[in-house]
């Protein structure tokens, strides 16, 4: 026998003895078939859906097959060591070694370009080419470029339609007020936030590394959320596992934080002269001699003649902020996962600061494919928000900083704290834990579970159901204790002996509160998605119900024996107190959507929501909210392709949607009662009286918003140049207001709110982008413009108001001010003009609007500007060259003004800008009025446009420069990727205000300032 055949027969015999069970049921293949297999398998996407039409090739051969409608394929006569190549449009190709296995399954991932072609909409996703509504989105990766720990501060300028105002940088309370396409109501204008399919709070505090994308629904696209969608909808989608081997990522950044702007206050010599002038105007003797003023300036006697900068004494030059993030993602054909942990710390700007914010967060998103018909999803997110403050508020601390007289010591030369400004307030101390603490721990748990069940006997039909359970536990503990400040014993004592004095409260006192908030939401949807040739249909009908319950409790005690004993049970029984309360809320909704397109050219969407809420009386609790939109992709038409070749893509679309707003006080349709503060004594008991809180309105109903939108989308040279533009208009009716303005005050009547006001809001959005590759250099430029301006169409005006004072026709919240037209240089100018009684040279001139020769309330004019900007601009520039990447975002806002007037005079200091070029007898052409004391002058106590600042600004909002280490270098040290970067936030601000930040809140400048952030960081992928 040929030795070669002998060896083959021997191997067959050995194989047969070890596989008798198999060979008993299957005939032995012939010798000519050895090494060849029949390969069967199934191809799915990462969500477990079968993929029909996938090409399966045997590498380096012409042999191949295509998957059927269930994702199955069969390949005959395949070698055991062959490699199969799976290819499908829109998905990353995948190669799998056969390795002698008769079954080879594959899970394909959509490539990034394909994912970018989709946008998240209400209760689903849509291809961007088929969307008919005004929907804008931003990737989570773009939000991560901002070192700001509050996501709300990272949206403006990146997404058209977002108008945001940031009034504070205080850790834990540093978010922006967000308006989608401006304000359209006199009431609550906050948008609805939906996280992973469920309306939830806490968007600001989400970990940006967990976010896949953020979408903004602005027109009929938002109508699917019905009664809560009139102010727009923010949809947040978190990351999910994408299959494949486990990927471990770690990110760290360290930030150095400083205020964007602090007011430069007058120095001691300047302030001393101003005080003398104020006293002179009042007929009093000067307080300071020229010799004393000189001592304030030369620093020769810091004990008695200091030159104190209170901001320098209490505020750090640099504060620290850092973040750690760890994530693990991956999966198999049956299970995918994304798990993350995060921690951040944000310090306050005070020296020895008691203010800081700490957060720990965890997330686990799991997806499981049970079989061809059932898919499951389970999400768990937890967060601990730990806010720490001194018992004095930020407003109180900054009031003291603004009022701190530079002629007094904040800190004595020996390092001890100086005296208080009033009520124990010395910000050097009140910003620290020396006066006690306030600790607010908010525990947040968000869970949701969902299942998708394919109906096998109806192609394209499936049911999905979801259940969400959200729970908050908020525990606040505020402990305030006496603190010590020091005053000079005797100004004539050369030893400068100081007296210690107890300030603040007489004895320690403790306040504690505990609140729980529980929300349960569930929904079920019947979906039908199918294509019939060029006809594509996507639809669903659904039911959803949500309940919300809150319970809270508070208690307090005083007169603790020791300030070291901060437990409630150790306080005295005298004046102890407790209280509690709670509420419940429920919603029930029926809704659905039908989307149809023909060959992705003719596009139609219709959605409807039937909403119910307990805020309205029986018979009026349900509201119907429809929405419709259509689009036409002209560039798909044969005539376009033949005649207009410069535009590669062009779409027009239009939408109308009717939405509601139920963000109002509850139970206004009922008579509500409360207990009076006092009462009647019967024996030794106090019996409180019961009184009616308000009159009911049994006809109360929804606000209704009719939204109209027309848009175009275009691309030139492929996608090198793209444009998207929208014109929109919203007419809001049934807005709740009271008729109290037309009800004479002498009647003593308070009327309930009624659905009578009307508002119109209109404007446009524009997004233009350009990108190009020049060899190894890639760049992209994106510009956004948003303009939105509202107008009150009907409001219950006081009768017979002059036209220039009416709110109707002006923006919501438009203020009423006297018109400041200059400064009197001489007394002769005062005498020749209509003026307020007692006016003198150096005062602000008020315009005699009605020209009656008298300055009175009829000369006030309604300003058509508010604190909210009407224009928002954004310019993003990104570039990549080899391993370097660069991102720069400029953001600007115009159309806003803010009323800012400091509490200055004998009571406290002035900003230097107020008094540096003030009017005096020797400086009659000064750009600022004469020195004043608090609100004693008419041009201070009567609100006027002299203090109404134009707050237009432009900011270098974000700057990011990174370096990705070369792949070979990373592989040598066991890494997939390593990136190091430097970045910044609010690095440069251009505006006319100069003294305060242009986003400062209205008032006296007594607020925690916005912050500028310098950041370094790294991202590592294992």
From TrEMBL:
GO cellular component: cell outer membrane
Signal peptide start-end: 1-21
Domain of life from the UniProt record: Bacteria
Ranges of residues in domain TonB-dependent receptor plug: 130-233
Key words of the record: Cell outer membrane, Membrane, Signal, Transmembrane, Transmembrane beta strand, Transport
InterPro entries according to UniProt: Beta-barrel_TonB_sf, CarboxyPept-like_regulatory, Plug_dom, Plug_dom_sf, TonB-dep_OMP_SusC/RagA, TonB-dep_OMP_SusC/RagA_CS, TonB-dep_rcpt-like
Pfam families in the cross-refs: CarbopepD_reg_2, Plug
PANTHER family: HEMOGLOBIN AND HEMOGLOBIN-HAPTOGLOBIN-BINDING PROTEIN 1-RELATED, TONB-DEPENDENT OUTER MEMBRANE RECEPTOR
Homology family: Belongs to the TonB-dependent receptor family.
Name used for this protein in its record: TonB-linked SusC/RagA family outer membrane protein
Species: Chitinophaga polysaccharea
Organism classification: Bacteria, Pseudomonadati, Bacteroidota, Chitinophagia, Chitinophagales
């Amino acid at each position: 026998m040929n030795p070669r055949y002998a060896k083959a027969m021997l191997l067959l015999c050995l194989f047969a003895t070890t596989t008798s069970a198999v060979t008993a049921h299957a005939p032995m293949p012939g010798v000519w078939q050895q090494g060849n297999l029949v390969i069967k398998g199934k191809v799915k996407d990462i969500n477990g859906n079968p993929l029909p039409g996938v090409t399966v090739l045997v590498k380096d051969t012409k042999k191949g097959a295509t998957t059927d409608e269930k994702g199955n394929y069969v390949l005959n006569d395949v070698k055991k060591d062959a490699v199969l190549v799976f290819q499908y449009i829109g998905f990353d190709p995948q190669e799998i070694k056969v390795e002698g296995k008769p079954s080879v399954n594959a899970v394909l991932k959509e490539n990034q370009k394909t994912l970018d072609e989709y946008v998240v909409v209400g209760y689903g996703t849509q291809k961007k080419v088929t969307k008919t509504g005004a929907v804008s989105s931003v990737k989570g990766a773009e939000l991560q470029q901002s070192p700001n720990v509050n996501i709300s501060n990272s949206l403006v300028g990146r997404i058209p339609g977002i108008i945001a105002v940031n009034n504070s940088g205080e850790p834990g309370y540093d978010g922006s007020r967000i308006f989608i396409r401006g304000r359209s109501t006199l009431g609550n204008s906050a948008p609805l936030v939906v996280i992973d399919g469920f309306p939830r709070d806490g968007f600001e505090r989400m970990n940006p590394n967990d976010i896949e994308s953020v979408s903004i629904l602005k027109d009929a696209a938002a109508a699917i959320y019905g009664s809560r969608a009139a102010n727009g909808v923010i949809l947040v989608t978190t990351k999910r596992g994408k299959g494949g081997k486990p990927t471990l990522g770690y990110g760290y950044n360290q930030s150095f934080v400083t205020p964007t702007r602090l007011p430069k206050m007058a120095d001691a010599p300047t302030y001393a002269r101003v005080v003398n002038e104020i006293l002179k105007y009042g007929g009093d003797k000067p307080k300071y001699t020229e010799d004393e003023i000189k001592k304030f300036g030369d620093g020769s006697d810091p004990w008695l003649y200091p030159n104190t900068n209170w901001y320098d004494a209490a505020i750090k030059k640099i504060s620290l902020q850092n973040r750690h993030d760890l994530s693990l993602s991956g999966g198999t054909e049956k299970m995918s996962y994304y798990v993350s942990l995060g921690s951040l710390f944000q310090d306050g700007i005070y020296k020895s600061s008691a203010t800081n914010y700490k957060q720990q967060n965890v997330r686990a998103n799991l997806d499981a494919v049970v079989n061809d018909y059932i898919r499951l999803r389970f999400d768990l997110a937890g967060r601990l928000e730990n806010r720490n403050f001194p018992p004095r508020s930020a407003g109180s601390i900054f009031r003291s900083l603004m009022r701190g007289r530079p002629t007094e010591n904040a800190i004595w030369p020996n390092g001890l704290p100086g005296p208080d400004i009033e009520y124990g307030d010395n910000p050097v101390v009140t910003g620290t834990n020396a006066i006690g603490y306030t600790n607010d721990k908010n525990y947040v748990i968000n869970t949701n579970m969902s299942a998708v069940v394919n109906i096998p006997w109806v192609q394209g039909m499936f049911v999905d159901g979801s259940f969400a359970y959200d729970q908050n536990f908020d525990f606040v503990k505020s402990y305030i204790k006496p603190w010590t400040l020091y005053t000079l014993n005797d100004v004539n004592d050369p030893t400068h002996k100081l007296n210690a004095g107890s300030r603040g409260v007489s004895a320690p006192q403790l306040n504690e509160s505990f609140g729980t908030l529980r929300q349960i939401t569930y929904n079920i949807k019947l979906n039908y998605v199918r294509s019939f040739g060029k006809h594509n249909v996507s639809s669903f009908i659904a039911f959803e119900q949500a309940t919300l319950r809150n319970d809270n409790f508070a208690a307090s005690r005083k007169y603790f024996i020791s300030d070291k004993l901060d437990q409630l049970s150790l306080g005295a029984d005298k004046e102890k107190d407790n209280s509690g309360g709670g509420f419940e809320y429920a919603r029930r909704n029926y809704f659905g959507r039908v989307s149809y397109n023909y060959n992705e050219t003719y596009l139609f969407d219709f959605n409807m929501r039937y909403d119910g809420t307990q805020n309205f009386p029986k018979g009026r609790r349900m509201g119907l909210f429809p929405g419709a939109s259509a689009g036409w992709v002209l560039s798909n038409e044969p005539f376009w392709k033949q005649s207009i070749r410069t535009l590669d893509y062009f779409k027009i679309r239009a939408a109308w949607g009717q939405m509601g707003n139920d963000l109002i006080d509850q139970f206004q349709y009922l008579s509500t009662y409360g207990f009076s503060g006092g009462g009647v004594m019967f024996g030794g008991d106090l019996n409180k009286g019961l009184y009616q809180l308000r009159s009911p309105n049994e006809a109360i109903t929804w606000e209704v918003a009719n939204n109209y939108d027309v848009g175009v989308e275009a691309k030139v040279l492929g996608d090198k140049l793209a444009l998207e533009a929208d014109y929109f208009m919203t007419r809001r009716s049934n807005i709740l207001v009271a008729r109290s303005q037309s009800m004479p005050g002498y009647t003593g009547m308070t009327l309930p709110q009624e659905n009578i006001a009307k508002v119109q809001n209109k404007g446009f959005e524009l997004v233009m982008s350009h990108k190009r590759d020049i060899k190894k250099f890639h760049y992209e430029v994106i510009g956004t413009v948003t303009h939105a301006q509202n107008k009150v169409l009907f409001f219950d005006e006081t009768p017979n108001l002059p036209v220039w004072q009416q709110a109707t026709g002006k923006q919501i919240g438009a203020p009423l001010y006297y018109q400041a037209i200059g400064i009197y240089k001489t007394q002769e100018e005062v005498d020749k003009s209509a003026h307020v009684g007692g006016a003198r040279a150096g005062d602000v001139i008020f315009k005699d609007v009605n020209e009656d020769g008298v300055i009175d309330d009829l000369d006030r004019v309604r300003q058509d500007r508010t604190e909210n900007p009407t224009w928002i601009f954004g310019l993003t520039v990104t570039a990549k060259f080899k391993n370097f990447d660069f991102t720069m975002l400029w953001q600007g806002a115009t159309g806003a003004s803010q009323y800012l007037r400091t509490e200055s005079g004998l009571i406290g200091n002035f900003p230097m800008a107020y008094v540096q070029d003030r009017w005096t007898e020797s400086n009659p052409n000064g750009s600022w009025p004469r020195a004043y004391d608090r609100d004693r002058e008419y041009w201070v106590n009567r609100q006027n446009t002299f203090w109404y600042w134009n707050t237009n600004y432009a900011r270098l909002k974000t700057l990011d420069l990174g370096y990705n280490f070369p792949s070979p270098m990373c592989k040598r040290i066991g890494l997939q990727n390593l990136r190091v970067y430097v970045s910044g936030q609010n690095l440069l601000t251009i505006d006319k205000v100069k003294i305060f930040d242009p986003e400062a809140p209205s008032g006296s400048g007594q607020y925690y300032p916005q912050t500028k952030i310098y950041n370094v960081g790294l991202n590592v992928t294992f």
